[in-house]
Amino acid sequence: MRVREGRVAVIGAPPRLDLGLRPDVPADRRLFLGTHDGVAYFAGLEDGPDAGDEHAPSYLGLREVGALLDDLEAGLVVHAVALDNWHRTHQHCPRCGAPTRVENAGHTRRCENDGSEHYPRTDPAVIMLVVDDDERLLLGRQVTWPEGRFSTLAGFVEPGESLEAAVRREVHEEAGITVDAVTYLGSQPWPFPSSLMLGFTAHARDTAVERRDGEIAETRWYTRERVVADIDSGALLVSPSISISRRLIEHWYGGPLPEKPGS
């Protein structure tokens, strides 16, 4: 697999994942991703365009190509992109600032000055289905999103914080709502650049929204009927199928969300 600044090489139409490697990729730019059914998979990290190569593949991000991949390919891409992000941003030792070198087939870096070993990081983030006594779902629109784009609330886990405490804190910070019962549902790796999204349901004790931290521009309480009506009218744009947010909403909805006709 060829990886370039968080994007992966694809070929053909519709695009398919290109699992080949350039023959000139140096050893410290070749990452071992694992084996499956006796086949070893690697990612080659690339920096720039293929000058003058008319047969060079196209490069797409995970959001663009993710829905076209099977489970094996999706796992390989997420693994490769997460490692690529880490290598590009951790080339110096956090202890002394000296350069680090790649070891263990791309899964560690070692400081060339003090010999310390460093590992890829994963940043846990919680993402929540906030539901009230009437089974309504709370969705929010971030200030940087276009009109109509709504999603479940989410936020990063802080040092020393449990996942359940992070759910309660984030909902209160973003919407001013107190939640009590918090239940884990599932997780999804999200290498933008290095997150692990942990999905929960959270029961709202109150429903009066008060946006507090400035990250949320608008919130809406949704019934299942309103979700269908707003998607059909174009008033609601939900997350794409590759995201855990979409899966959480569909868990609440009880099945696949309807698509806007012609979308």
Protein architecture, described:
With 263 residues, this protein is α+β, with helices and mostly antiparallel strands. The chain is 21% helix and 33% strand. The chain contains five helices and 15 strands. It has helices spanning 62-65, 71-89, 163-175, 224-233, 244-253, and strands spanning 2-4, 7-11, 16-17, 30-36, 39-46, 58-60, 100-103, 108-111, 117-118, 123-131, 137-142, 153-156, 179-190, 195-204, 216-222. Strands 1, 2, 3, 4, 5 and 6 form a six-stranded mixed beta sheet that branches. Strands 10, 11, 12, 13, 14 and 15 form a six-stranded mixed beta sheet that branches. The radius of gyration is 21 Å and the shape is globular. It starts with a strand and ends in a 10-residue tail after the last helix.
Write the H/E string, N to C.
Answer: EEEEEEHHEEEEEEHEEEHH
Terminal-residue CA separation = 31 Å
Q: Which structural class fits the helix and strand makeup?
A: alpha+beta
Instruction: Report the C-alpha radius of gyration, rounded.
Output: 21 Å
Instruction: List low-confidence stretches.
Output: none
Number of strands: 15
| Principal-axes shape call | globular
Instruction: Count every helix, treating DSSP H or I runs of 4 or more residues as helices.
Output: 5
Major beta sheet summary:
6 strands, mixed
**Strand-residue proportion:** 25-35%
Helix content: 10-25%
